[in-house]
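Why run this: before we spend reagent on co-expression, it is cheaper to look at a predicted model of the complex and decide which construct boundaries make sense. The entries below are exactly what would go into the expression plan.
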Amino acid sequence: MATGLINANPIVYERKERRVRDSPIDTDEYAEEPIDQLEIFDHVRDIKDPEHPYSLEELKVVTEDSIEVNNKQSHVRVTFTPTVEHCSMATIIGLCLRVKLMRSLPPRYKVDIRVAPGTHATEAAVNKQLNDKERVAAALENPNLVEMVDECLAPTFE
Amino acid sequence: MLASCSGDKTVRIWEQRPSGSWACKAILEDTHNRTVRSCAWSPDGKLLATASFDATTAIWEHVGGDYDCIATLEGHENEVKSVSWSASGSLLATCGRDKSVWIWEMQPGNEFECVSVLQGHTQDVKMVQWHPFYDVLVSVSYDNTIKVWAEEGDSDDWHCVRTLGEANSGHSSTVWALSFDSRGDRMVTCSDDLTLKIWDTSNDPSQTVGDNDRPWSHLCTLSGYHDRTVFSVHWSREGVIASGAADDAIRLFVESKDYSVDGLSYRMLLKKEKAHDMDVNSVQWSPKEPRLLASASDDGTIKIWELIEVSQ
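The model came back. Tokens follow.
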């Protein structure tokens, strides 16, 4: 890792135990199962931090409670907490969250990504950029950025 | 005839058959190597300009059923986001992520010369559109403002004659698009702040001098109708405003005859929920048939709609 880490000594938290979903046998297997908080959390918890060998869950960047789901309106909102309030990695973390959910959820889902209120120095600017889909699309045509994102999304945990 | 552009780097030309159905007549590919963000026909319909994230704008000519790329306009540092022809067809404007607006002049022999690079926006410029009659250009931006550009006298010197920002009852977030009404005396803009705004554009701002003329001012705001970002807005020749938004819906608005205290008001004529399966990125009325509307979406489809009746 290059010199000058943004946050040299992040606090690392314990990972939550994986809950196994109950799969009731007698239900209609073709029935559409609503997507819940835990399912979204399972999609994003193992995303790797861009500069540390820890997951976003271990750094408490995302928690299950930071995820809101409205199935009826096909709407998901993820509120993440950067490890330090000047974290220049905030947009790349947000981009990773967006890409992971774009790849994992049915296309009808509207995803909003934002930093937790009061946890980042340039909160409004970061939120605006992460939710401008044109800029996100342009960013994802940049091979260097995509490589960075893919590295964070690579399944290195379990 | 309809042109569509896409993240798949192509432009497709669609034509209506006598039976009424639409067919893809041509695919313009291998010229842009990134997303084609915007396209525009020249006023005489002979040329098509396409703006791409690859930092270039291409000009295509329709020759004997085929489309040839006759010019490539280079100069923007990165993504070009919009392109627009002036009413006379002699000027072309482009804008992009490098915060600049470029004005190009068409020369004999398919040469395009850059006549001005306009700086002023502090962020990504999302769209440019010429006034339907005057050589006056409007740009809208991620910096939340609308800028009006005109030539200074006869000097060929383009400059910003008006900035419509939050202080002028303007938008509080990204302005995505704009459209003029058929007479050019009103303009509608749409934004990430979930509103549409109507502006008085009846003065030619290149002819007014001094602040007292108050060229181009806010008339009214349509709020409370949209739940997510409004990406596109277009004014039909019959005066119907269509909007396309990130909530998958298309809405139509008309001027309300019941004048409010403030003078002017608009009402929603129709809301088409689930017009598409995903975000509606563009809505565009047919210039020939004023009740025919085309819409394009993230779901990869283009839909053609007909407005059957405008109830009063």
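Chain B is about 0% helix and 50% strand. Chain B touches chain A at residues 7, 34-35, 37, 53, 78-79, 81, 97, 124, 126, 142, 173-174, 192, 228, 246-247, 277-279, 298-299 (CB under 8 Å). Bring this page to Monday's planning discussion.
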